[in-house]
Amino acid sequence: MSGAAQSAQAAPALQQARPQRYHLLLVLLHWLLALLICMALFMGSQSMAPMANSDPAKLEALRAHMMVGGGILVLMVLRLLIRLLTRHPAPASTGNATLDRLAPLMHWALYGLVFVMAGSGIALSVMAGLPDIVFGGVGALPESLRIYPPRLVHGLVSKLLMLAILGHVAAALYHQFFKGDHLLRRMGLGKR
Q1: Is the dihedral of CA 113, 119, 123, 124 positive or negative?
Q2: Domains of the chain, residue spans
Q3: CATH of domain 3-187
Q4: Tens of pLDDT along 16-56?
Q5: CA neighbor of 65 nearest in space, from 151, 182, 187
């Protein structure tokens, strides 16, 4: 049998070997991170942004935001490791070659944006002395955090992340309800 014929026979076997769902830990982390990231984005944009730094409640809000952000970073590293080390379903197709090429780039962009958010948050925190202020009670918050360059990055990337999340949700809903390929089952908690 020729090498091409063997490869043609092996291809269906490889496709059958792929799981129909993502690894359970990956699924649990996906939904937990979705919740935490949405919480952190809401806290930052809707709760803390309009609050003056002189408001005592800002310290509590920052403390919660920083703790959630730190948790997100740890869980994202864990999720990335599990994603790289586990088998996963074959890529879903939209029926459009361009969109099919963009899909993995968008998934990696979500990872990248979350890591940039965490990195800019840490940089801002260090530059502004927030760990001592927020967790140690030493000193007061600066009049504005906008004077620190990482704050600009944090704010800009938060908007990009929100758009990427909306795109991700729209794509999943398109697959589920318009394509009818039951894509959401892959990230579900059902039988493996």
Answers
A1: positive
A2: 3-187
A3: 1.20.950
A4: 588 999 999 999 999 999 999 999 999 999 999 999 999 99
A5: 151
